Automatic annotation (TrEMBL):
Source organism of the structure: Rhodotorula diobovata
Pfam family name, one: FAD_binding_4
Ranges for domain FAD-binding PCMH-type: 64-252
Key word Oxidoreductase present: yes
Protein name: FAD linked oxidase
Length: 516
């Protein structure tokens, strides 16, 4: 295996064999829902090659790689329940997996864990076009849900660059933030109900505020007891396998504007943000940022043309994307026009471009959305997703660059570039350090230095990507010891044998209960 520092494989986990495969085949409704390299003793199934399993064992960045011999793709909650009950009884370690677009090594095995992928669970269960509540299987792809809602005049409350592959169950499990959080809030607000399978001997299906699941259905208000569904949001597959989600979807705006502006320094980025909030008010729906290195990378790797007529003064600028969404185009145009005029008059923005139609708007958005992919094309990316107070946001990127320079990592090409971008509206900074390769030298130059630098600023070491394998042992930079201990107790309560995503999310507990 490679990537991240993992605890050794637990010796009490069962090594998967042909009997296990035979059981899983008996549970799954379709033979194509199972891929395994384990040979059949009597020829009743044909074994796959490890190549067939690579897409499930290797993460999006090519950084984390496990060695699972089996992938299951159940189609129903009932199938998931039987699989999980069996894994509990046999002590088989399981990795719940959605679209495998996670960026912290959480969705792929570390060793030989069974991969339980949700792509077969892709049915939309219900949509109420009065309340806007959508209820779906966990394996529905985010973009498929957006496309389903669009003709009905609704949209998903979240959007991210990985929308074409990530699953709604994965989004909920990572508490994905993304490009619309500024306006529509986090999934802790918009997810109304969760259905999940618990890692116990029955594979208990728990339904919290799901239509038809028993008890109160999907409601905005339900103050009866602990809000259990919140625990699954951002649990990264450590408490159960999410099989269904009810989510509140907002109306699709009828008027959208997108502008990209160039400003000379990071202080001006903050001024533009303050002004945009003051003048655009409720129609401000996104405020994104990237630096000169980010723009250069995207233009070089996508072949896109710069949206600006002139080169920035001194060769460097900072860029912001402002999106407005509303229901009255004239009103929104007037507000945005007023903002841009004021910023120009005050000499805050150096250059800018306003999309004239949807194609241009998509083009401007792609400058921002192509960034992670462009970085991946340049080399191996060490990705850090942190929250830091805006006043101290960009100094972290500058400190990183200075550090690598001093260490000679830039001169010898080990570090190719350091890019800063992110969701300014949420104080969420992405630092992408593009290296020649993943190796001990570059990784140790960055970690744990970067976590210490974030903690010094009272920031969070994970704004939205989660902990996974990458940050399981670093959570103390953002959470106190008593808080970590309580989280470990909660995890053990849900998953007494620790079969779900072992070695990830939190530092491992010392002793697992002796039972069983
Ligand atoms: P996976 O990668 O398959 O899994 C992620 C974690 O969730 C794992 O720990 C896994 O075990 C667990 N999990 C998955 N499904 C389930 C389930 N059904 N039940 C229980 N546990 C489950 N993230 C953001 O927050 N904001 C962004 O703007 C953003 N942009 C991105 C852009 C790109 C180009 C890429 C590649 C990634 C981006 N991400 C972003 C990260 C990633 O897309 C999100 O974390 C996404 O929510 C993961 O969904 P997934 O279905 O791919 O989950």
């Amino acid at each position: 295996r490679s990537g991240g520092v993992a605890a050794p494989r637990r010796p009490d986990f069962k090594k998967l064999d042909a009997d296990d495969v035979a059981f899983f085949r008996s549970v799954l409704s379709s033979p194509s829902s199972l891929i395994t390299t384990i040979e059949s003793p009597d020829g009743s199934w044909s074994a796959a090659t490890s190549e067939d399993l690579i897409a499930y064992n290797l993460d999006w960045m090519d950084k984390y790689k496990g060695n699972s011999p089996i992938v299951l793709k159940p189609k129903t909650t009932g199938e998931v329940s039987k699989i999980i009950a069996y894994c509990y009884k046999k002590r088989i370690a399981v990795v719940p997996q959605g679209g495998n677009t996670g960026l912290v090594g959480g969705g792929v095995p570390v060793y030989d864990e069974l991969v339980l992928n949700t792509e077969g669970m892709n049915q939309i269960r219900d949509f109420d076009d009065v309340s806007g509540i959508l209820t779906t299987d966990a394996g529905c792809i985010l973009e498929v849900l957006s496309n389903y809602l669009q003709p009905k005049g609704y949209m998903m409350p979240l959007d991210l660059g990985a929308k074409g592959s990530c699953h709604i169950g994965g989004n909920v499990s990572t508490n994905a933030g993304g490009l619309r959080l500024l306006r529509y809030g986090s999934l802790h607000g918009s997810v109304l109900g969760i259905e999940a399978v618990l890692p116990d001997e029955h594979g208990t299906v728990i339904s919290v505020n799901m239509p038809g699941g028993g008890g109160a259905g999907a409601l905005r208000k339900d103050n009866t007891g602990y809000d259990l569904k919140q625990l699954f949001i951002g649990a990264e597959g450590t408490l159960g396998v999410v099989t269904g989600v009810s989510i509140l979807t907002p109306r699709l705006p009828s008027a959208v504007n997108v502008a990209v502006l160039s400003v000379p320094d990071f202080e001006s980025v903050q001024t533009v943000f303050k002004e945009a909030r003051a003048q655009l008010g409720e129609i401000l729906s996104a405020f994104e940022f990237w630096d000169q290195e980010g723009l250069d990378l995207v233009l070089a790797h996508t072949g896109a043309k710069s949206p600006f007529e002139s080169e920035p003064e001194g060769g460097r600028a900072f860029y912001v994307l402002i999106e407005t969404s509303g229901s009255n185009k004239d009103h929104d145009d007037e507000k945005l026009g007023g903002l841009l005029e004021k910023l120009l008059e005050d000499g805050i923005i150096a250059d800018g471009t306003l999309a004239q139609d949807e194609t241009q708007a998509l083009g401007l958005w792609s400058l921002r959305e192509s960034l992670p992919e462009a970085a991946g094309k340049l080399g191996k990316v060490l990705k850090f997703d942190v929250s830091v107070p805006l006043s101290r946001y960009y100094e972290l990127v500058e400190e990183a660059r200075e550090r690598f320079d001093k260490m000679g990592l830039v001169a010898d090409g080990s570090i190719k570039t350091t890019v800063g971008y992110g969701h300014i509206g949420d104080s969420n900074l992405h630092i992408n350090i593009v290296a020649k390769e993943y190796n001990e030298k570059t990784e140790s130059a960055v970690e744990p230095w970067i976590y210490e630098a974030v903690a010094k600023r009272n920031g969070s070491i994970s704004a939205e990507h989660g902990l996974g394998l990458m940050k399981a042992n670093h959570v103390h930079y953002s959470k106190t010891e008593p808080a970590i201990a309580l989280m470990q107790q909660i995890r053990r309560l849900f998953d007494p044998r620790g079969i779900l995503n072992p070695g990830k999310y939190l530092p491992p507990v010392e002793h697992l209960p002796e039972e069983g």
